[in-house]
Amino acid sequence: ASTTTMAIEIDAPPSAVWPHLNQLGQDKAGFYSFSIFERAVHFLIHNTYVPQARWQHTKVGDWCFYGQQGIGHEIVMHEPGRYIVGVSDSRKPPTQEGAIAWVPAGMSDFAWSWGFFLDELPGGRTRLTTRTTAWGVMENKLKAGIVAGLMWGWSSGVMQTRLLQVIKACAEGRWFLKL
User: Fold this and answer.
1) Is 171 helix (H, G, I), strand (E, B) or coil?
2) Helix (H) or strand (E) holding 20
3) 14, 30, 67, 84: which sits with the fewest CB atoms below 10 Å from its CB?
4) Quick one: pLDDT at residue 146?
5) C-beta of residue 102 within 8 angstroms of C-beta of residue 73
6) Do the beta carbons of residue 136 and residue 151 sit within 8 Å?
7) Distance CA 179, CA 160 (A)
8) What does the pLDDT look like over 140-174, one tens digit per residue?
9) DSSP letters of 55-109?
10) Phi, psi dihedrals of residue 147, rounded to the nearest 5°
11) What is the pLDDT of residue 22?
12) Distance between CA atoms of residues 117 and 63, nearest Å
C-alpha cells in the first residue's frame, strides 16, 4: 500500500472551505486543478470556483466521478464541515449506474481511498488535509509500476497540490487572483 498526505492552512473558517469540498466531481464543480491535464487524459472536467447550492447535497453512497468514463470513488464517510472520504475497490464493484472500479494495467485488483479533513485552527483558520491510500495486486510489476507510478506519483501530487492551493484561494475569497 502507498499513502500520501498533504495539508494546507487556510485563512478562513471550515464553513468557507466545506462547500468547495462538498461539490468535488467531474459532473459537479470539478477538482480545482489543471484542466488542461484533466482533458489530456480525456476527463471532461470544467472547474467551478463558486459554491453552487445544487451540488451541496453530497451524502454517503454517492459516487464521485473523476471523468465521464465512470472512474471515481464512493463516498463512505461524510460529516459536513469536518470530513469526506471516498473509496473505490475492484473487489467490491460499485452499484451506481455508470460507475466503475478502475484496475490499472498489470494489476488484478486495485483499491484506493481519498479523504479530505478539516481542522479548525485559532483565529477562524482551517487546516485542510488530504490523504490518499492505494493498494493493488500486481500481476505484471513493470506495467503496474509504470501505470500506478504515473497515476499515484507525480501526476497525483501535482494535481492535489493545485487542488489545495485553489481551494485555499477560493475559501479566502481571492480565487480570481490565483487562477
Assistant:
1) helix
2) helix 14-22
3) 67
4) 61
5) no
6) no
7) 15
8) 766 666 666 655 555 677 788 999 999 999 999 98
9) G----TT-EEESSTTSBEEEEEEEETTTEEEEEEETTS---STT-B----TTEEE
10) -65, -50
11) 96
12) 18
Ranges of the chain with pLDDT below 50: 178-179
- Does residue 132 sit in helix, strand or coil? strand
Query: 120 has which bridge partners?
Result: 126
CA distance linking residue 83 with residue 18, whole number of Å: 9
Residue type, 19: P
Place of cell 465512470: 70
Cβ distance 87 to 74 under 8 Å?
A: yes
CB atoms within 10 A of CB 153: 14
3 state SS of 6: strand
C-alpha to C-alpha distances, 87 to 160, 165, 175, nearest whole angstrom: 17, 23, 29
* Rounded Cα distance, 51 and 3, in Å: 29
Distance CA 46, CA 32 (A): 9
DSSP secondary structure letter of residue 151: I
pTM of this structure: 0.88
